[in-house]
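In response to the reviewer comment on reproducibility (Comment 2.3), we provide here a single inverse folding case reported in full, input and output, so that an independent group could reproduce the run without further information from us. The structure tokens appear first.
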């Protein structure tokens, strides 16, 4: 069993301890696994938002091969609260740039849904796309420590960088 992680101080919990892979193996979009994320934006002693983060092992150049968008697939459920769904990107130094999904009820969508974010959105916010260090996915308002939110469970799959169809032609 991997070592226990106390988390990042938000109301998120990642993984499924009932599977050997710690991933969701039945509710998947592509492949054989997805990332289950439980969120609780009113968890005593924690921030009032939930966020999972991945620090890249080395700075990553998100401009290589002509890539110009970040895409991911997500799935929620009708019992989830309607806390905003967001993606944030950061460089080693500096404030992350947060992009909030246009659908305020995205967490309640019970079917796999693709979300495509132009990388230029992060660049316009000040991210150096040739030196990306961290990717975050969250529910609620990033940085919120005072206003309680709701709770639920989300699934994420097929997070990738790609070229848009227009750019590939």
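Designed residues, in position order:
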């Amino acid at each position: 069993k991997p070592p226990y992680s106390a988390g990042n101080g938000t109301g998120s919990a990642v993984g499924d301890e009932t599977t050997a892979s710690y991933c969701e193996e039945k509710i998947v979009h592509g492949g054989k696994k997805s990332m289950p994320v439980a969120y609780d934006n009113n968890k005593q002693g924690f921030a009032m938002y939930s966020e999972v983060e991945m620090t890249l092992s080395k700075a990553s150049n998100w401009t290589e091969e002509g890539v110009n968008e970040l895409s991911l697939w997500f799935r929620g459920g009708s019992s989830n609260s309607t806390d905003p769904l967001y993606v944030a990107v950061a460089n080693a130094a500096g404030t992350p740039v947060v992009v909030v999904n246009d659908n305020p009820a995205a967490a309640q969508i019970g079917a796999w849904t693709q979300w495509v974010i132009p990388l230029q959105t992060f660049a316009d916010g000040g991210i150096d796309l040739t030196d990306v260090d961290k990717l975050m996915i969250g529910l609620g308002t990033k940085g919120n420590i005072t206003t309680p939110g709701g709770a639920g469970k989300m699934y994420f799959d097929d997070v990738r960088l790609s070229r848009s169809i227009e750019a590939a032609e």
